[in-house]
Specification:
By secondary structure, the protein is α/β, with parallel strands linked by helices. The protein is built from 17 helices and ten strands. The strands form two sheets. It has a five-stranded mixed β-sheet, sandwiched between helices. The chain has a five-stranded mixed β-sheet with strand order 7-6-8-5-9, with helices on both faces. Helix 2 packs across helix 11, helix 2 packs across helix 12 and helix 11 crosses helix 12.
């Protein structure tokens, strides 16, 4: 081998290593937390499995932090860059000051069912019994309280709520008799049906807008990391699109993260969420406004939280205006 040839090989190797080093340096590492083992999180799992975060220059470490309250606490502590959660915890987190901001609403409907042992047919059958929720202040807690209100029951007086930590634990509590009813999200409610439990209420059929699944970031992070926010939302919207349009891939993702092999459950879960995920994931202010009103009945301090101060739809608006979202669905 000639001297010139060796020089060319060495120079090429140096250029390749330098290019890889620059690429790695430009890729931002982010920890992203999600608050539930539920089909509502399928779009972020899809974005991760499809490599969309990597494609947009983000090295995303997805971590499960059970319960939105705990997730948002981790965000306030600076441990998590983006959170995938929603509900009352976002309002509570902003009670003192503007701390966390919703930047995308991937699911704006309440997708919850109250399931129970077959013997419970009406309010009197449930009086004195327990309803399992994941944690107080979460969507399951709010769903159970709304359900009890419609049935004329009180969680403080008639039907106590039992915290069990996660959606799978709610299902397990029903199976082992620890609880008599439980608030479940898809696909856990489908599993409950197969096990013989009865549906008491389907809250998705109620006329309720609800901040079910949001992308949330701290106010400080938004100010300093605009490019990362846009990149994260681009990958997220691509994840929604892939979930909606590639059923086979979406079902594999659901099977992996939900640890479900039942084909009929996977099919129904995909059908439900592919319909409900927002193409252009704007946050609907009316969902938060109604939630603040309901929560304010028990804690008037929460009425001081202004919806406009805790949501920021500009990033989604800019992506839609640029044609990014429309081009995905051509």
């Amino acid at each position: 081998m000639s001297v010139n040839m060796r020089r060319i090989i060495v120079l090429t190797a140096v250029l390749v290593i330098t290019s890889l080093s620059l690429s790695a340096a430009q890729e931002q590492k982010l920890k992203v937390g999600y608050s539930a083992i539920s089909g509502s999180m399928a779009w972020v799992w899809t974005a991760k499995e499809a490599g969309y975060f990597d494609r947009h220059g983000l090295q995303v470490d997805l971590v499960y932090i059970g319960g939105t309250v705990q997730l948002f606490q981790a965000m306030l502590a600076g441990e998590v860059a983006f959170g995938v959660g929603g509900g009352p915890a976002l309002i509570h987190a902003n009670l003192q000051r503007r701390s966390l901001v919703g930047i995308a609403g991937t699911l704006n409907r309440m997708v919850m069912k109250i399931m129970a042992i077959p013997q419970i047919k009406g309010p009197e059958d449930l009086r004195g019994k327990r309803i399992a929720v994941t944690r107080y202040g979460t969507i399951t807690d709010f769903s159970a309280r709304l359900f009890l209100k419609k049935w004329g029951l009180s969680p403080e007086r008639d039907t106590p709520l039992l915290q069990v930590g996660s959606i799978p634990n709610v299902l397990a509590a029903l199976q082992n008799g620890t609880t008599h009813a439980g608030a479940l999200s898809p696909p856990a409610h489908l599993q409950a049906e197969k096990l013989g439990f009865s549906e008491l209420m389907d809250l998705s059929k109620e006329e309720i807008y609800y901040p079910y699944t949001y992308v949330v970031a701290s106010a400080g992070f938004l100010e300093k990391n605009t490019k990362s926010v846009v990149a994260f939302l681009q990958a997220s919207i691509e994840g929604i699109h892939r979930f909606k349009t590639d059923k086979a891939f979406a079902k594999r993702v659901l099977a992996k993260y939900l640890v479900i092999k039942d084909g009929s459950i996977l099919e129904e879960t995909h059908e439900l969420f592919s319909r409900l995920f927002e193409r252009a994931p704007y946050i609907k202010p009316e969902g938060l406004s109604s939630l603040i009103q309901i929560l304010g009945e028990k804690d008037p301090k929460l009425e001081a939280v202004k919806v406009d101060s805790i949501i920021d739809n500009r990033f989604v608006r800019e992506l839609e205006a640029s044609g990014f979202i429309k081009n995905l669905y051509k």
